[in-house]
Q: What sequence folds into this?
């Protein structure tokens, strides 16, 4: 069902360069920024941890075992790559604990900071991720690559869901349809797995809808009948296109909202609704499955902003050094796919 992300239309044309990422952990560094302050008191101990060679879940289980607490008492905001050097926050619920417990650090993780807070860390509450990566074995048109990067700085990039949403074998959508529509198999799903399957289905529809809009050459302007999203929020409003709306769109104050499909009001009309209905009509099984799961329709911005984007090409090494800050939920691989093929296809 899902073909990865190579079939999608990107706003700045066909990519003519290719390269490789994550050749070694030092090639991929991620720093998570929470965006809020701690109370300094409470029963949740927050840890700022640097890890390498561990998934977030593996790190959580290591700490849970050492402290003899259930893993469910440890919170995190985002899942970070295993084959990378990453810094992220965890919270540990320790009711009645007066002193910070000793946690044995290893070569795979070190604790950089600790503080107390009155609330558990929940998924998706961090503000941004800062990336510092190396792309190796660059091959192709450096001039076209540089031109596309300038366009990204000026106009943003398509906010596609990345390959991670669709599984290592790109089969999450097919699995989701088979299992969610089988009453016996669906009952045996964990909450986490069920959520992953539903997210995969919604992500597939979102990517197709956004690709349809870009194919129709709606990128640097909104579409008639759009729902607009206030940048950095989930706030959605509907207003006819005007000079003011266009100005706010160009300045990244608002984006066009693309549906994360589910039950509930579309809020779209005219061309925007037409573009979405073309995709929804072509994917009846996905739509029916999501409706049966009683998932509520929401929106995701059509564009993402690459803040403080810095790209340095090192011709003597055939490498690119890249630094960028992205909002939570925005995929670095999606940004890269706009100017360099990292899939080897």
A:
């Amino acid at each position: 069902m899902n073909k990865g992300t190579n079939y999608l239309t990107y706003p700045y044309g066909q990519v003519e360069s290719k390269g490789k990422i994550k050749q070694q952990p030092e090639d991929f560094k991620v720093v998570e920024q929470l965006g809020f302050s701690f109370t300094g008191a409470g029963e949740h101990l927050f840890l700022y941890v640097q890890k390498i060679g561990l998934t977030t879940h593996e790190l959580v289980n290591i700490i849970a075992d050492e402290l003899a607490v259930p893993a469910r008492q440890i919170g995190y905001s985002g899942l970070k790559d295993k084959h990378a050097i990453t810094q992220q926050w965890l919270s540990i619920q320790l009711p009645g604990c007066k002193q910070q417990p000793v946690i044995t650090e290893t070569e795979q993780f070190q604790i950089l900071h600790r503080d107390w807070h009155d609330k558990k860390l929940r998924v998706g509450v961090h503000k941004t991720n800062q990336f510092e990566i190396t792309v190796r074995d660059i091959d192709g048109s450096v001039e076209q690559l540089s031109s596309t990067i300038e366009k990204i700085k000026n106009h943003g990039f398509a906010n596609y869901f990345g390959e991670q949403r669709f599984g290592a074998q790109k089969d999450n959508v097919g699995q989701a349809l088979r299992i969610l529509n089988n009453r016996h198999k669906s009952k045996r799903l964990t909450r986490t797995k069920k959520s992953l399957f539903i997210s995969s289905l919604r992500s597939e529809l979102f990517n197709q809808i956004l690709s349809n809009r870009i194919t129709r050459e709606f990128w640097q302007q909104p579409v008639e009948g759009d729902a607009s999203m206030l940048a950095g929020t989930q706030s959605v409003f509907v207003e006819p296109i005007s000079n003011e709306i266009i100005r706010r769109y160009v300045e990244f104050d608002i984006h066009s909202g693309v549906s994360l499909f589910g039950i509930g009001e579309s809020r779209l009309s005219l061309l925007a609704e037409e573009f979405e209905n073309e995709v929804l009509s072509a994917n009846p099984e996905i739509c029916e499955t999501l409706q049966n799961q009683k998932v509520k329709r929401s929106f995701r911005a059509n564009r993402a902003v690459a803040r403080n984007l810095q790209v340095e090409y090192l011709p003597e090494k055939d490498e690119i050094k890249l630094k960028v800050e992205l909002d939570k939920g925005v995929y670095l691989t999606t940004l890269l796919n706009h100017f360099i093929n990292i899939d080897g296809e």
Notes: Residues 229 and 235 are 6 Å apart (CA to CA).
